[in-house]
Design goal:
Largest sheet: none
Strand content: under 5%
Order of helices and strands: HHHHHHHHHHHHHHHHHHHHH
Shape: globular
Distance between the termini: 21 Å
Helix content: over 70%
Number of helices: 21
Length: about 500
């Protein structure tokens, strides 16, 4: 867990700085200078761009961290594995781009009633998607080389600084909204360009199709694995994208702007978890390769425990102050409070089960995961059809939460019965009970007529003291304690 904590700490610090930039952009500047409908347009283009990237990768990016350990040999240029992966995703990008152009009228028909403004920006989904796709390829390649920091810096800091610059130009009226959307799509090529230069600096940029040295037998294995994981990955992305797509279809761009803003707010709580997963997932592949089941079980339990503590603790700190935090937003964001709650119920369970999906998809039984993925898509789609017309964006959040809970429970049971692996220990249930009691305690503390800012500070301090303090005092989660110690040591020196 040492290497995981060290790298996770670095990426968490960078991601946290990037998160501040992201909040300034989407949580402040977007709300100040854009209409809610314009926010909906920008976020819908982004959501469809991410979906474009996932459709285009043909599962290749997930084959990198699965199979790269078998080809890792710098002297032999890793047998051309990077070139092989790039050829697959470029083929995918070409096919999906053609699909977007040929079926443009059909896709636009979905939005012309409730979200007609989006039609003017439809084509900018393609460059955003291709830029994001290339970033995913180089990011997972670097992750397989156990190089995580620059990838996080490029996407979370550099990209968001550039977006901040674009927002400033728009505010100064040096560019209009059309120019902003165009530029916002094109800047997604900046992170992959940074990673290309970084790989060149490391001497790991081996791009030459003539140097691909992978046997036909292994290519067949890779293609089979990629095909199944392609569907699995689409399932997770569709869960996030379907909400946005269907809200824009059934309600409109204003509701889309509200929903996507709240989704972004939930991402703050996931920053430490994503950092842990980023550096832990390649280790799962190494454990499978070396048949190190004891190491994998230990890593699984440790990552899940740390994710539970940090995720639940941050959620509690936000939830006890939720009315105060939403008081700064426009009145139409009032439904966002319960959107946040239901989304976080699904996200917290997703974080708690941690590496469950990586263990599943890296195993020989990965093909069975397709069943869970198709079920996930079906649950989200049909629940959205029923709940969005009745409850609006809150219905979409409930759909996502229910789907994620069922999805994770199903995969958890499968992995347990197949490999006797689970993330649980009895102290985790004490942590969950402690979290519930912390919310009840802090919400019911009388604040009288104190200033709202003082109330916010007091509630946050009390929550952190009760929840995190109790965990540290009674050693309910040792790895979290070690994580905090390393963080304090890093700050000190």
């Amino acid at each position: 867990m040492g290497i995981v904590q060290k790298d996770a700490l670095r990426t968490t610090i960078i991601s946290s700085f990037g998160l501040i930039l992201g909040y300034l952009n989407k949580g402040l500047f977007f709300l100040l200078i854009f209409s809610t409908e314009q926010i909906g347009v920008v976020n819908l283009v982004f959501s469809l761009g991410v979906l474009f990237a996932q459709f285009s990768n043909f599962g290749a990016i997930y084959s990198i961290w699965k199979f790269f350990p078998f080809f890792k040999n710098k002297e032999n240029k890793h047998h051309g594995f990077l070139s092989f992966s790039l050829l697959i995703v470029l083929l995918g990008a070409g096919i999906v781009s053609l699909f977007f152009l040929l079926f443009r009228s059909n896709i636009e028909h979905i939005y012309e009633s409730k979200s007609p403004m989006f039609l003017d920006y439809y084509l900018w989904v393609i460059p955003l998607g291709i830029g994001y796709l290339m970033y995913l390829v180089f990011e997972v390649y670097l992750r397989s080389l156990f190089k995580n920091v620059i990838s996080v810096f490029a996407m979370d800091v550099v990209l968001r600084l550039v977006v901040s610059l674009l927002l400033l130009l728009f505010w100064l009226e040096l560019i209009d909204f059309n120019d902003f959307v165009l530029a916002h799509s094109l800047v997604f090529f900046i992170p992959p360009l940074i990673l290309i230069f970084y790989l060149k600096y490391l001497g790991e940029l081996f791009i030459d199709p003539r140097k691909i040295n992978i046997s036909k037998r292994f290519k067949k294995i890779i293609f089979n694995y990629s095909a199944f994981n392609y569907m699995n990955t689409l399932g997770r992305v569709l869960v996030n994208a379907l909400d946005v797509i269907m809200i824009a279809q059934f309600i409109g761009l204003k509701a889309t702007g509200v929903y996507t803003t709240v989704v972004f707010l939930t991402s703050a709580i996931q920053v430490p978890y994503k950092s842990l997963i980023r550096v832990s997932s390649p280790l799962i592949s190494e454990h499978w390769k070396n048949r190190n089941f004891s190491g994998m079980k230990l890593l699984y339990r440790q990552v899940s425990s740390v994710s539970l503590v940090i995720g639940l603790g941050l959620f509690i700190c936000v939830w006890v102050n939720i009315d105060f935090l939403f008081s700064f937003l426009k009145p139409e964001f009032s439904d966002g409070i319960w959107v946040f709650f239901f989304l976080m119920m699904g996200r917290l369970l997703d974080m708690y089960f941690g590496l469950n999906g990586h263990i599943f998809t890296s195993s020989k039984k990965y093909k069975y995961d397709l069943i869970f993925t198709l079920s996930l898509i079906g649950v989200v789609y049909f629940l959205n059809l029923y709940l969005i017309p009745i409850y609006g964006i809150i219905g979409a959040a409930i759909s996502t939460a229910v789907a994620l809970i069922l999805y994770n429970l199903g995969r958890l049971l499968f992995v347990y019965f197949a490999y006797s692996v689970h993330p649980f220990n009895w102290k985790q249930f004490l942590i969950i009970i402690l979290g519930i009691l912390s919310i009840i305690l802090v919400i019911n503390i009388p604040m009288f007529d104190l200033n709202v800012w003082i109330q916010f500070i007091l509630k946050t301090i009390i929550t952190a003291f009760v929840f995190f303090g109790t965990i540290l005092l009674f050693d309910l989660e040792v790895e979290t304690k070690n994580y905090i110690r390393k963080a304090l040591r890093f700050i000190k020196y």
